[in-house]
Design a protein that fits this description.
alpha/beta, ABC transporter transmembrane region fold, Rossmann fold, 2 domains, six-stranded mixed β-sheet, four-stranded mixed β-sheet, 14 helices, 12 strands, elongated
Length: 539
Amino acid sequence: MDKIKKIYTDVLYVSKVVKTGNKKAIILVAVILSQLTAITDIGIIIFFAAIITGSYDQSNIFSPITEIVIEYKFILPIMVVLRFVFIYFQSMSLKNLELNVQRNLKVFLLEDVFDKSNYSVADAYFFVNILAGHISFFYSNLTNFINNSLQTVAYLAYLIIADSRTITTFGVGAVIIYFPSKVLIKKAREYMHESYEHTQQSNKEVQRIVDNMFLIKILNKESEEINNFSETIRKLNTSIFNNHKFGAFTSFLPSFITMFVFSILLGVSQIAKSITLDFIGVTLRLFQSLGGITGSVNQIINSHVHIENFYEMEKNKDNVYRENFETSTLKNNKAIEITNASFKYFNSENYIFEDLNLSFQKNTHNILTGPNGSGKSTLLGLISGVFYAEKGKIYSSSEKYGYIGATPLILTGSLRENLLYGNDIETRDEILLKYLKEFETFKEDANYNLDREIDNKSLSSGQMQKIAFIRALVSKVELLLLDESTANLDERTRKQIFDILKKTNITIINSTHDPENFKDVDNHYRIELIGEKRTLTKK
């Protein structure tokens, strides 16, 4: 009972945050269509039986209608058509519900990600894309459960009216079903939790490999990475298979036990003598709906695991300590000051940084080095206020930030739109042209056409990076964060960019794997990773 109550509570919570206005109407329509389908089913079975046998029970409440159908047989195909119409529109209404919930939930979760919660890239992708699908799937299965339950009631009611002795069959079957189903559902739930964890882990592995593809190839670590990834997927598949195994067994258990008990009663009692063709037909439909109920229950349990995680995510999102980041005037010409800061990603137990103390001076060029996974990108996120420290304090004297990664953001649009993306300062074309010429961007185009259409497929790595740097300069950023932004550039282009930056009053924090390319810098900080512990030293 407690589990049912929890499912109900979680569903109500999700329903509040996922604002799908026609949700109740869609569910009601699906339920009505489901009942019409069941009623039509029973009618078709009765009429088929009467037509085939050439007789019918005149004491049956449907006997007047049956008599009409036997007389006017064209009514039967009309009922068959109606049945499939009901099924079709029921299916469409459920799919509409699923897609509406999924769309609204994806938007809601994306807003959450942009709300500066401490999500890793893999977690953000999982929550927005995968979690939304599972939760929307929950609603469609919940409606299926309601539909199948109501259909079961309709079929069972008819069978009891036809022969009250059938209640014994289903009563005994229900008792037998209860205990093994309880055990199987519990086990399936455990495997679903495992599957959820392994899915998240596999997403993080893919993200890590993609982010470091070049380095992995250079170091000839492909085989090692493939083997590790293969093992991660093996664990995921094992948990999925185990969950499916128990789920499949649970789905056909009620039908199997009921049919088994029914067959025994047929063999040892006089009930067989009173069984009619319509009785058999409705019984088979009952077994089918029972299977539908347990199948839906299994899917509901699986999907509810994701709803639980969504609930926990939303409950804990206020634990992102926004007050620990502050923009203010700092003493001693400091741009950034970090004091006793500790940080971990949402849904993680391991701290990336603990009691971190660090400062950067204004108008300096600083490089940040360290092995993969040491937390260089995370530190840039803390410095910019994208992530928040759980403990400690981060002070910044900068109001405007710029960020350039290994693959800069390029819009499909005009060159002008790309240069001005995120810029809230009115900028004349003359300024844009000045920077384009200084950076020697599109030097093959003597006129530097600002209206030319570009995208990330039509540009070289150097052109994309130059656009990103110009974008930062015209926005008049005070602090520029670079995350392997020059990794794919040749030495000449890299030197050209930083020669231009030296003329500005911009504080630069540059995360790189290759400090040899940046010998002429003011400070070099290195993050060392020892197990789960990180230490930061100034070289």
